[in-house]
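Lab notebook, bench 4. The sequencing result for the construct came back, and we need a structural model before the next group meeting so we can plan mutations. Quick request posted to the team channel:

Model the 3D structure of this chain.
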Amino acid sequence: MTVATNSSRETRAYQPPRNRTRGRYPTLSWEVRLALRTQIGRPDTLYLYEAWTASTASAALCRSLLIGSTVGKNILSTPDQITLHSNSQLPHVRSDLRQYAQEGDVSNIVRLQADYLFQPAENCLARASAGLFEQMFGGVGGEIL
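Done. Here's the predicted structure in token form:
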């Protein structure tokens, strides 16, 4: 990859910034924070909320393998205001919000994801991911840039 500089209009090869921690794996990070989850405009109630604590941890096991997770603990919520039950023939996901909230009332896994980053060709980057991407959605996926 080449980049032109504005001052002299010369073209030189791009050099990524140097990382002082390069080669030091695994790297670990974590945080604990308060979070708010909201839903607006349901047929049975206008506004739902959940205040919760989110504990997040991530690890880079090597340069191309990343693992991250978030675990939540409910503090205050209003899912008991949901009175409508879905009778849809389609797979239930967001429509079973009350059931998700009741079963995960004490604590729940919000996200658990593994990402593998690689370069299949010059000027081409790729990512393969698998896991629980958000509270009600898991699977596998990929991206090529």
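The first strand starts at residue 2 and ends at 4.
Will bring this to the meeting.
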